[in-house]
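job 3f2a | input accepted
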Amino acid sequence: MTTDWSRVPVVVGAGQVTNREGDPAAAPDPFELMSEAATGAFMSAGVDVGSADISHLWMVHCLSLRHGDPAPVLAGRLGIKAAETRCSGMGGNIPQWLVNRAAELVVAGGQPRVLIAGAEALATRRRAKKAGVELDWPSAPGWPDTWPPMEPDVGVHPVERAHGLEAATTMYALVESALAHAQGHDPAAQRRAMGELMERFNAVAAANPLSWFGTRRDGAEITTATADNRMICFPYPKYLNAVMDVDMGAALVVTDAATARSWGLGPDEVAYIGGWADAHEVWYLSQRTQVHTAPALVECARSALSSAGVTIDDVGAFDLYACFPSSIEVARDSFGIATDDPRPLTLTGGLQYHGGPGSNYVTHSVANSLDWLRDGHGEVTLVHGNGYYLTKQAVGVYTRRPPTAVPDAPDSLQKRIDANATTVAIEPSFSGTGTILAYTVPYGREGEPDGGVMVVEIGDHHTVARTDRATADALVAEDAVGRTVTLSITDEGNVARLA
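job 3f2a | predicted structure (499 res):
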């Protein structure tokens, strides 16, 4: 059967930019970063913006802008007049989610030409605030009409929020404790494992001229708390945490293989989107039966790989979402990648070292995947995006070799995942005994631990609790998952002490 190349989705161009201008008055605004990245994407595709005749412009949500309808502004800057314009919702899954939607448009026919662009200039905003400089950036009142719609709870249950389990730094550090327990690691062994893992990511970032931090560090330096690498949330010192205060932009052009060929691109000059999938886990972290596994991600990977006609062994390189070590470890385990697998786990370098530009990091991941395939390093890559707290998952499989058929979009994936999911009820207040499922201890700026926070199993329910300082000290000294705690109800919520 002849392949209908007008219905085969491909990434044809990618552009990336990092601003090094330290003067906030002279630094580019996010629209300028996006415009420069988009111009690079068109150059990468071998076409100018006019000839590309963009039909859809999708902008990744930008935290550093104060604008109620930013996507048309970007279109105007680029001279794109007839495109559908949309601003996305938030989450590290969003860029791959947008690529997935673009791929579905291609498969449906009509030969769309989609520009996906995003940027953050949070570093410039921080410098401007510190220097008392008022930034003259385009602004407009209101909040963008986001696509998909913004989740009002941002993935946090009220009981979690009431007990200090809200920030990403706390959530992902808490997951790390459950991962360590599953591996049979005490804190020292887990620290070594994290160091070995993150040293690999740091090495990629240090070799990437676009990275925000180019410093090469070994695993021991990355994981050892010092004055320059203070503990944020146990077991994560600063060098293990995503850094959002960066100035970066990235853009992609997605279309069909027939259009790519009409633009003069050869069959091996594009990244074929062979398979894709996205879904969400049980929505709240503390309602999951296990906080360190991701059943929806397992299904997303299975669906995307099957559609692409490849197995996980065929993948030559990965770009796993790397906001914290636990996000990488959960993805690695979900995909069945061995801890000593020599294949690249990132082509970008991680949000800690490359830099984490808000929701837009994975746009850089896809851009680097295109470059890796074009340069002939291998035949297949897999990109993973993760939103909120291991909550929203998105996977894309990209290949260098043309497919033999039009890929299939996943059908009813979320319904199948939901049908097999178990949601554990959360008890807002509880007095009695329970078992620790996961925990962390936030630290103050002076390097002293505050009270801990944990998810506790109480019969067939879960609850969330704070701890006092003495209990927090005990938690950082050993693997405390599985330990019994006594909970009491106070004016500040549930308080747990080791039994």
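job 3f2a | The chain has two domains: 5-153+244-419, 432-498.
job 3f2a | closed
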